């Protein structure tokens, strides 16, 4: 009965060189232990005998070695040999490619929530994990990731790639010179082997000593020619890095499309990380007064970025002095809600990037002991409706009626039509008389009588 293969069986197939058509001896090694010998697996570099292409395989030997390297890179085990690890979910662009500039260990990634979004932090905890020490350093990813991404966009420009292509063409021209020399060497060895063959063919068969010597010389020349030819054929694919015109045009097109592809929000973060790993070998971080990021590109070139450390949250939340002074100035003529509307019209935002509101302005007043709009009107001598009624010995409804008639002025302290009355000290109002012969109330000023006597 057929059953789906288990995980262990799949790993056995992936790691077995038999499926690549190779014969291998020495994949395990015995290690003495109390009571017997235990078998341990060894790496590919320590296999004793490796004979590729012994029989037809499902894949070739080069592809098998590439898959072994990928399996080793993507291993989840706790090992010192592990370098990058697989591309994982999350917004950390440098995941698997970041090194600690203090101890040289690989830094991990921790995520935290900030404004409802996951924010990465690169933490070096090799010493803490392996030797029980302290964490070397932690670097905020929200500072490093955008800077490294901007560096890649800057490097992948048409001008930069044109320079790269020019250097590539120069290297190709220089590489053609040793290639010509190697071809000439192959031709010389072939010619020497042909001369040895001719000398052997002309010898007298009865002279066995001379024939054996010429045959050995011929075999040696053939072996030398074969070795030189195999060495050339092995190096030729590695050194054949010439770019034709079509490939160069595709590289130029990539330079024009790369910034758009990199900044496209529809591109999955895993794909962006894979692009990053093709271009960058590793990034070394050092956090001091500033953050230093040493970026080592895949070609061996390096770039150094110096970044400012993010401000502490207490300093970020602290209001700017000019903003507090502006609130204090506007409170002389506007209420809290009106001030919030003025700030929003100017495009000002809180430290969280949100618009101002009534509650936020009230918090600023309380935090910096600013008098409210109503208190400032009271300090100017303005009266409430009850106080105006007591002063003129009238009802509160009459106070509102006088306000509608324009005899007295009401100054609003908020946007809910609540306010105080601005009554000058020298103002006197003559009450009216209701009825058939009604007389409206009118304003009059209190004049100070003269104390001087009229002179005759």
Jot down its keywords.
single chain; 456 residues; alpha+beta; 4-stranded mixed beta sheet; 3-stranded antiparallel beta sheet; 15 helices; elongated
Task: Walk me through the structure.
The protein is an alpha+beta fold and about 450 residues long. It has 15 helices and 15 strands. Helix 11 crosses helix 12 (about 360-365). The chain is elongated and about 165 Å long. Mean pLDDT is about 80; it is low at about 445-455.
- How are the strands ordered across the major sheet? 5-9-10-11
Q: Let me know the number of strands.
A: 15
Rg, Cα atoms, Å: 44 Å
- Major beta sheet summary: 4 strands, mixed
- Write the H/E string, N to C: HEEEEHEEEHEHHHHHEEEHHHHHHHEEEE
Mean pLDDT metric: 80
Beta content comes to 15-25%
- The helix/strand class is alpha+beta
Per the principal axes of the C-alpha atoms, what is the gross shape? elongated
For the termini, the CA-CA separation is: 142 Å
Number of helices: 15
Q: Which blocks of ≥5 consecutive residues have pLDDT under 50?
A: 446-456
Specify the helix fraction band.
40-55%
Q: TL;DR of this structure?
A:
The chain has 456 residues and is α+β, with helices and mostly antiparallel strands.
Indicate the topology:
Elements: H1 7-15, E1 23-25, E2 28-33, E3 36-41, E4 49-51, H2 61-73, E5 98-100, E6 108-114, E7 117-123, H3 126-131, E8 138-140, H4 141-155, H5 158-202, H6 208-239, H7 245-263, H8 269-279, E9 280-287, E10 290-297, E11 302-308, H9 313-317, H10 321-330, H11 336-345, H12 358-367, H13 373-379, H14 385-392, H15 396-405, E12 409-412, E13 419-422, E14 427-430, E15 442-445
Parallel strand pairs: 5-9
Antiparallel strand pairs: 1-4, 2-3, 6-7, 7-8, 9-10, 10-11, 12-13, 14-15
């Amino acid at each position: 009965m057929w059953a789906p293969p288990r995980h262990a069986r799949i790993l056995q197939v992936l790691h077995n060189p038999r499926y690549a058509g190779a014969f291998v001896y020495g994949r395990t090694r015995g290690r003495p232990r109390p009571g017997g010998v235990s078998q341990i697996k060894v790496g590919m570099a320590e296999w004793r005998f490796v004979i590729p292409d012994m029989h037809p395989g499902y894949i070739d030997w080069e592809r098998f070695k590439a898959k072994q390297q990928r399996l080793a890179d993507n291993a989840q085990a706790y090992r010192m040999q592990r370098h990058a690890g697989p591309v994982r979910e999350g917004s950390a662009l440098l995941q698997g490619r970041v090194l600690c500039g203090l101890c040289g260990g690989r830094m991990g990634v921790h995520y935290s929530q900030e404004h409802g979004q996951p924010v990465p932090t690169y933490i070096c905890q090799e010493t803490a994990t392996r030797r029980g020490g302290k964490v070397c350093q932690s670097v905020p990813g929200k500072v490093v990731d955008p800077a490294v991404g901007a560096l890649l966009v800057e490097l992948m420009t048409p001008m930069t790639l044109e320079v790269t292509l020019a250097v590539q063409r120069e290297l190709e021209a220089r590489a053609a010179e040793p290639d010509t020399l190697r071809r000439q060497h192959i031709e010389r060895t072939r010619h020497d082997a042909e001369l040895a063959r001719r000398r052997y063919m002309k010898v007298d068969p009865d002279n066995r000593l001379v024939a054996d010597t010429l045959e050995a010389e011929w075999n040696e020349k053939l072996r030398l020619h074969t070795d030189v030819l195999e060495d050339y054929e092995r190096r030729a694919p590695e050194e054949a890095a010439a770019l034709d015109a079509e490939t160069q045009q595709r590289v130029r097109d990539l330079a024009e499309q790369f910034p758009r592809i990199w900044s496209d929000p529809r591109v999955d973060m895993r794909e962006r990380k894979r692009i990053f790993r093709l271009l960058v070998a590793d990034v070394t971080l050092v956090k001091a007064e500033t953050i230093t990021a040493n970026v080592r590109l895949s070609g061996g070139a390096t770039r150094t970025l110096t970044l400012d450390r993010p401000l502490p949250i207490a300093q970020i939340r602290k209001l700017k002095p000019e903003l507090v002074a502006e609130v204090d100035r506007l409170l002389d003529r506007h209420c809290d809600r009106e001030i919030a509307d003025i700030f929003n019209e100017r495009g000002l935002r809180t430290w969280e990037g949100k618009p101002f509101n009534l509650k936020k302005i009230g918090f600023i007043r309380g935090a910096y002991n600013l008098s409210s709009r109503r208190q400032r009107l009271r300090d100017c001598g303005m009266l409430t409706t009850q106080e105006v009624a007591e002063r003129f010995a009238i009802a509160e409804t009459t106070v509102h009626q006088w306000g509608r008639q324009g005899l007295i002025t009401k100054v609003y302290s908020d946007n809910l039509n609540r306010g105080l009355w601005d009554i000058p000290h020298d103002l006197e109002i003559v009450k009216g008389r209701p009825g058939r012969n009604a007389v409206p109330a009118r304003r009059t000023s209190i004049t100070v009588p003269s104390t001087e006597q009229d002179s005759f």
